[in-house]
Amino acid sequence: MRDKVRECISYIRKITDFEPEIAMILGSGLGGYTRQMDEVICSIPYSRIPGFPVSTVSGHAGKFVMGYIKGVPVIFMDGRVHYYEGYAPEDVVLPVRVMRAMGAKVLFLTNAAGGLNEEYAPGSLVVLRDHVSLYVPNPLIGRNDPDEGVRFPDMTEVYDRSLRKIIADCASVKDIPISEGVYCQLSGPSYETPFEIMILSRLGVDLVGMSTVMEAITGHHLGMKVCGISLVTNMAAGISTQPLNHDEVKQAGKDSSEYFAVLVTDSLCAIKQHLDAEPHTVSKD
Ligand code: HPA
Fold first, then answer.
1. I need a surface site. Which of 91, 104, 195, 199 has the fewest CB within 10 A?
2. pLDDT at position 244 over 90
3. Are the CB atoms for 259 and 35 separated by under 8 Å?
């Protein structure tokens, strides 16, 4: 285990021996989801964990919340750390390594995203099928620890096919419209120009945002099963004629919180059943 991860784990293990099965990162405006927990075991602000990056963005609380949703042991990141905040790529993905080291086998990513696909509207939910990253370094650059994963990890199926189907099935049972799309992470913090969006759109990108891909690459490298849902908070620059702003992004997260919560809870339960039926074989401990 890397030194930084070891230091974080030794602090967390003084507080709790909680072992999550699923690690979930809550995107902008979606932090309210932790209210759905039946039992909170503990909550640890990032600022207390030695060497841990602290989220500085409004709408991101900056704490781990651990506990149970309908019996499923989950660790939530209520607030993520973004590359545009000035952290080194290795620090942006440190939380993923820590949650993996605590026992999480699944990495469930959520984010607020701008929509390029004209079939979307603000409030649309989209399951991630694949990703692209532009102007963002690969978080695996640097020394590779073979105990964590291989030097050149395959990325053919970052977003686990079975988990994608589980989420789609849960949405269908509750009549929640959902589709699949390709997400592009750009560095931010400025939003994209209309011309950048036009280029991405011609390349087949469905969604843009400032997170997720670095975390997905790391989780996949660590042998976690990865899945993700984007909430379209706005149509991307030039597709929408309105100037973009972060308040709109946070508000859209709040407006959709009810059906987002239903879908996430059902998906967490179905993913747990899936894990129980087909034990995860990859163990890096
Ligand atoms: N662009 C980038 N990131 C975003 C957007 C957007 O339009 N909306 C929410 N996060």
1. 195
2. no
3. no
Ligand 1 pocket mutation, candidates 208, 211, 239, 242, criterion most atoms within 8 A of CB: 208
Is the pLDDT confidence value at 285 over 50? no
What does the pLDDT look like over 39-64, one tens digit per residue? 999 999 999 999 888 766 665 568 99
Nearest-atom index, ligand 1, CA of 192: 1
Burial of 75 from C-beta contacts in 10 A (0-12 / 13-18 / 19+): buried
Mean pLDDT of the chain: 92
Q: Compute, in angstroms, the gap from residue 192 CA to the centroid of ligand 1.
A: 8
Select from 241, 244, 248 the residue to mutate for testing ligand 1; criterion: most ligand atoms less than 8 Å from CB: 244
Q: 198: exposed, middle or buried (C-beta count within 10 Å: 0-12, 13-18, 19+)?
A: middle
For ligand 1, atom 9, which residue shows the shortest CA distance? 113
- Return the percentage of the chain with pLDDT > 70, whole number: 94
Give the number of domains in the chain.
1
Among 36, 46, 97, 113, which residue's Cα sits nearest to residue 67?
36
Assess if residue 32 is contained within a domain.
Answer: yes
Q: Would residue 282 count as lying in a domain?
A: no
Query: pTM of the entire structure?
Result: 0.94
Report which of 121, 111, 114 is spatially closest to residue 238, judged by C-alpha positions.
114
Q: What is the pLDDT of residues 201-210, one digit of tens each?
A: 999 999 999 9
The CATH number of residue 84's host domain is 3.40.50.1580
Q: Is 283 within a domain?
A: no
- Domain with 30, as residue range(s), is 2-277
**CA pair distance 261, 270, nearest whole angstrom:** 14
Reported as a pLDDT band with limits 50, 70 and 90, residue 15 is: very high
Q: Is 127 a domain residue?
A: yes
Whole-angstrom Cα distance, residue 94 to residue 233?
Answer: 27
